[in-house]
Amino acid sequence: MLFETILTYPATPEIFLLGMTCIVLLADLFIKQQEKKITYWLSQFALVGTAVLVLLLYNVPSTLLFNGSFIWDKTAALMQFAIVAINFFILIYAREYIRERKIPQGEYYLLSLFSVLGMLVLVSAYSLLTLYLGLELLSLPLYAMVALQRDSTECAEAAMKYFVTGALASGMLLYGLSMFYGATQSLNITEIAQVTSNLSSGQELMLIFGLVFIIAGVVFKLGAAPFHMWVPDVYQGAPTSVTLFVGTAPKIAALAMVVRLLIEGTPALVHQWQEVLILIAVLSIALGNVVAIVQSNLKRMLSYSAIAHVGYMSLGLLAATPDGYASALFYMLAYALMSLGAFGMLVLLSKSGAEVDKIGDLRGLNTRNPWLAFMLLLVMFSMAGIPPMVGFFAKLGVLEALIGAHMVWLATFALVFAIIGAYYYLNVVKVMYFEEPEIQYPIVNRPIINVAISVNCLMVLWLGMFPSGLIDLCRAAFAM
Amino acid sequence: MFNDLLLILWIIIKIIVIVVPLLLGVAYLTFFERKVIGLMQSRIGPNRVGPWGLLQPIADVLKLLTKEIIIPSASNRYLFVIAPMLTITPALAAWAVIPFSQGMALANINAGVLYLFALGSLSVYGVLVAGWASNSKYAFLGAMRAAAQTISYEIAMGFSFVGILLAAGSMNLQDIVLKQQGGFWHWYWLPLLPLFVTYWISGVAETNRLPFDVAEGESEIVAGFHVEYSGITFALFFLAEYINMIMVSTIAALLFLGGWLSPFEGIPLLGPLFAWVPGIIWLFLKIGGFLFLYIWLRATFPRYRYDQIMRLGWKVLIPVTLVWVVVVSLGVEFKIAPWFI
Amino acid sequence: MNLAQIFTDLVFFSFAAILVGSALMTIISRNPVRSALFLVLAFFAATGLWILLEVEFLGLILILVYVGAVMTLFLFVVMTLNIDVEEQRSSFVRYLPFAIVIVAMLVILMVYVISPGHLNPSELTTTGGQPVNYSNTTELGMVLYTDYAYPFELAGILLLVAIIAAISLTFHGKGNNKTQNPDQQILIRREDRIRMVKMQGDKK
To answer: Which of A5, A240, A463, B206 is the most buried (most CB within 10 A)?
Structure first.
């Protein structure tokens, strides 16, 4: 009886994760430095357990809990599973890296678990209050993780930039939320959605005023232009293991925030936010793709590519149709997977103190480790949007949704820049395959890590060849 | 209109009735202190001005008032002058909510304990600003020490207040006292003994009195934060310190020793015998006891070292209060007689 | 208009003026310590406004937490830093026109949005006028542990994370500090510390 209740109570994954995180915290405090692997295994157990619980709960019908401030629906379930699964891989990749660089291991695992908890909370938040708290719970550990490599001044600088801009974004978001609260006198998204459908003109003006700030804050967190300034600096300055963390799962959570606030919270203001999103998408796609071309630092290049990808994702949102939302979600999941592969590869290649972060560092990767080179090739092709990779279907879905919403000019624009963007991804492939390596010795990884990265990158291929399953899941998430 | 003005006048009279005896009390507290310490150290203490030296505090006050105020040329003038005011204002303002007997309070507000605590946490500003504005390294060191110490002990003090709130179920000082009715063994000092001790230690630390007076530490940093002050500006710091001492003693008496309640309440023979004594006398006696304790501590203990102060605050007092807050909440939950009914 | 009403208005407007003025001074003051002190004053004024709204708990907590603890530590840090005021000043002047334009735009928008023409004050609920035995603390406690239990817990976790993050960034492990160990100190024996040596006299 009790067991059944637990398995049908939608907040179980969060509660389990919090409980396990506290156990990890205490365990890490009392175990010796040599036995930090216990922390690692406990953390992985926490993630796997959470993922299993989310899966078990998938068929539980949509419910509101905690006085309407927590929602469990298909969107939440899908995103939560993706977030937890991605973090499972992140911990596998990051383990060696942080051990070699004397980054405090226990703290890394612990902070990442707390951040994951924040993402889960954010994904299923359904009131302005929990939304904001989830966002902060997500971000706060990230700021600390960027600075965790204490002897590095670049990390400290990146952390400082991240923290200051992040705090500014939080402030803007909070200001916007307060406007929402002032206009609707409710914190609950259900009630806000009801109130916004019949507003007096004065209240609507106030809502729009707040909406601008909310979008600014959200765009900041997503890392899209014109609020993208922090992205390249943080991606480049942070230890690669943390860049891996910052650049993947939080994007999904930020998408959840957009979904809750704009799509579910203020459907009545769709025309207003649509216009802003068009601007953001156009700016992000253009700026991301063009600036990425001239980058010689791989992490920086990938960060501009991230800006461009967020731009593509928002194309799906601004189509403002269920299909469009589904395609945006699909795009985000696909991007998170690709980004996990790309940054994960950088982490794995950065061996014995040598940091692989320039494009030149990948020279002749094919001769040093053909399999890893092939895996990176898959990821790069996918990011460039070359069939049959998942990136292709992601872009296709978004463009389809745009055309469905009669925004052909925008679709053409996106297509042109996708072709421009393909250049720098393919440049990486060229460097790997057609240039001579500077260092000759082969790259050897532990088998389990090889398996993980192979699974990760082959997923990119597999989802590209058989995308229908994931597409259906995304559609189910936005079925009206 | 007229009634409103009358009300304001009445409030001003009440304020005067509180403040004037308070200032006199401070003056004679210093006398009392010097006498007591003198006796404890086998000396006589002040005995020249007036009969038995009783006019000594008056002479001190006159001396301080007539002295020249020196403002160091490199100091931050504005803040330098404002610092003593920052110290004395919260010290006086806190008295607004103290009930001296049933119904005898300037303002009987609901969040009385919180108000006291909030104002208590402000006392550090005068010290900080004085230390910084003096532009002297001794003063600055004293200010830094005071800030760190106040922050550390405020947490423990806050938790002991939480225990009181749990036990009394109210933040109104009058209600808290009335909840302790029933004689000596019904007062909160017994069920909340660890919190009582913690409160007292933190109170001594918050007022920067020995053995926690590192902020002044005359043997290390001359006189700490007020080293550059003279005349009336110094007198204000001095006054605030003693007013705060009386305040801490009063709060201790109200929260843990039943305020104005008679200790003999409910005892067959003694109870009726002392029933005629007005409550305010009992309160003053309790306050006096605590003040004596202050002086006794000063005469007995050497000064703590800075790291020892930090260790006591963070590693001893805070854990103790945390545990006891849990114990108290269990007591309240299971309604353990006679305290938590 | 009776005296109480005039008094309330007077208190409101003076606190509001202090709040805006000190907030402004926080930003434009040259000396960081003064900035911090003006921020303290701003908190005070905000407390005054809150108490005027009969939310004494929040007002006092604002003083207790922000003025009593946060700003004290803040001042502690700011006072020990030796910030070059002139350098700050130059960048301040450089960005000033830009900032003024943005602020002006925001203020104009804000005034436009909340002007009586657009926002009918009667649409907004007001607080105040509670019965005499109304306790803000009790009410707050009631909703905090029922309706808002979930956000409340989340805020707790957030604070825990902040503690962990701060410690992991600043704690460099044991063994770096030079504190004395009293346990060891009292175990010292005379024999370990001094050696009595018999010197031979200079006898001939």
So the answer is: A240
